[in-house]
Amino acid sequence: MTGRIDGRPWREHLDFEEAPTLVRHLATAPAVVILYLTGMRPQEARTLRSGCCPDPGSTGPHLIRAHHYKNVRDIDGYHVSAGAERDVPWVAITPVVKAIRILERMVPEGELLFSATHHDVVSQRQHHGALRAASLDRRVEQLIGWINAEATAQGLPHQQVPDDPFGNIGLGRLRRTLAWHIARRPGGLVALAIQYGHMRTVLDGRTASGYGNRARRGFHGELDVETALAAADTAARLRDATAAGERISGPAARRALIAAAHLPRFEGALTTPKAAAKFLSRDGQVLFDNPEAFLICAFKRDMALCDPASNATAPNQFACQVGCGNAVRTDSHARAARTYADVLDRRAAHLPEPAGRRLRLSAIRFRSLADTHDVQSLDASEVVE
Ligand code: SF4
């Protein structure tokens, strides 16, 4: 037994009777990883084949050759149920490549990664084709049940998967969940310490690799909608905060206030990829919340210090740099920076050097951001005068 949970071997031995159930979960977990970290549609993932993601050597990222099915038509306009290979492959980050490699060890070469014949280890019914969508959805629920039982058995009840108020976690929901996290939690941690911000960079490989051709369809359209909605929320919050008397500072303060004032024209109109893309293309007038850096980013590409791509419509928030001309802070940001500095000081008191010193230096940096805001901030009416 080499696998560990919370530092301990997760089993002393494997029960022969339990093995088929574990194999079933071992196939379901990669399905979740692939769908959650690529943005693929479930139908596309179910029909991936062994060998779809060859090792690129040192030449670049792993690419997945997949088939897509939506709106595939022949020259007479009839829907082609067999689909067609995507012109532009998906970019696979490391966990996705590992998930594919696990599945490739479970099916013969060239076979469907989710082949019904090879994954029906419990009943062995020899069905043809890929596992059905409903069957995979059911397997996800069974996997969650297994995780929760395992968490209890391992004395880690806090690691249970909580009930979802919106019902079962169908695989079709993962695309939107990924878009939501990339747009709204750019610095947050996703599985295996990959940051959502980095996911945007990987996905924005579309701009260099031809993803742009499909950008307004499929996942990138969904990402644009979620990003535009998050930006609209940020603008509305800034407007409310300054209306409530909060002061504002930063080189882009004037631009941000004007952008927030123009928001009413867009509210409620950002639900289509086309409208969202148009909203995001207004360079310098779209506001991105960046709570990790305690600021709002009034993103203007040419001024950005976080090295965005030449045609990016969103900043690389995870790489936010002090001193950027797009930064804006309100009193709330200054308060949050001070609260966080206090947390860092408390943590530092329990850490040996040099880790403790590093945290104390960070705390000083955050307090200094807040002090600068206090000195330079103005009332909104003074800024737009
Ligand atoms: S470096 Fe500038 S453009 Fe990039 S996220 Fe920070 S404030 Fe925005």
Radius of gyration: 24 Å
Number of helices: 14
Main sheet overview: 4 strands, antiparallel
Q: Kindly estimate the percentage of residues that lie in beta strands according to DSSP.
A: 5-15%
Q: Which structural category do the helix and sheet elements fall into?
A: alpha+beta
Instruction: Provide the list of bound ligands, each named once.
Output: iron/sulfur cluster
Nearest-integer average pLDDT:
83
**Range of helix content:** 40-55%
Low-confidence stretches: 188-197, 205-216
By DSSP, the count of extended strands is 12
Counting structural domains, the number is 2
Widest sheet, order of strands:
9-12-11-10
Instruction: Write the element-wise H/E pattern from the N-terminal end onward.
Output: EEHHEEEEHHHHEEHHHEHHEEEHHH
Distance between the termini: 69 Å
Approximate shape: globular
Topology of this structure?
Layout: E1 4-5, E2 8-9, H1 19-38, H2 42-46, E3 62-64, E4 67-68, E5 84-85, E6 90-92, H3 94-104, H4 116-119, H5 133-153, H6 174-184, E7 189-190, E8 194-195, H7 196-203, H8 205-209, H9 218-243, E9 248-249, H10 253-261, H11 273-280, E10 287-290, E11 295-298, E12 327-330, H12 331-348, H13 355-376, H14 380-384
Antiparallel strand pairs: 1-2, 3-6, 4-5, 7-8, 9-12, 10-11, 11-12
Helix pairs in contact: 1-3, 1-5, 1-6, 6-7, 6-9, 9-10, 9-11, 12-13
Bound molecules: iron/sulfur cluster.
